[in-house]
Write a structure and sequence with these properties.
The chain is an alpha+beta fold. It is 15% helix and 49% strand. The chain is built from two helices and twelve strands. It is globular, with a radius of gyration of 20 Å. The mean pLDDT is 92.
Length: 166
């Protein structure tokens, strides 16, 4: 019994000693003007001609991807994006992310009818988890970085603030 208590005490103490706090660093802002959606079954596919990338990573979103989302339940839209960033220094970064837009019924209806820009972002949940792939040595740190995007609606599409989890 003493061994069990001693082991449990060690586990609790080591958890306190070795646990880490979650820290973030903003790595980019994305601004993506979206084209009108193409409906394919339950999916709304939004393409873009170009998007802007600013922050630690600067460049543009190439017209090689789209948002392939769908409404998965009342008041919840599942985000599903594939994109390619071309940096100012001509490197390429493949980015994919999934996430959710969720709101109460009234707010969700406003978003669905193109009035998202008129809504205070605190009234809805719009989060994503970007994952990156690149062969660039300069940006290789992205290949092993966990990140979170905080989205909002703009007059022409969407924007995200993307944070690396340190």
């Amino acid at each position: 019994m003493k061994k069990v208590i001693l082991l449990a005490s060690f586990i609790m103490i080591s958890t306190v000693i070795f646990s880490q706090e979650l820290k973030t660093e903003k790595i980019m802002d994305l601004s993506i003007p979206l084209n009108a959606p193409v409906m394919v079954g339950p999916r709304a596919i939004y393409s873009w001609n170009e998007g802007e990338v600013t922050g630690l990573i600067k460049g543009k979103l190439l017209p090689l991807g789209a948002e392939f989302g769908k409404e998965i339940e009342k008041n919840t839209y599942q985000v599903d994006v594939r994109a390619v960033i071309q940096t100012e220094d001509k490197e390429t970064i493949y980015m994919t992310y999934s996430g959710y837009v969720h709101a109460d019924t009234e707010t969700f209806n406003l978003i669905n009818t193109g009035h998202g820009v008129e809504i205070d972002p605190s009234k809805y949940y719009f989060r994503s988890n970007p994952v990156f792939e690149t062969k660039s040595t300069k940006y290789s740190w992205l290949n092993h970085t966990v990140s979170v995007g905080v989205g909002s609606f703009t007059k022409t599409g969407v924007s995200y603030k993307v944070y690396a989890i340190k």
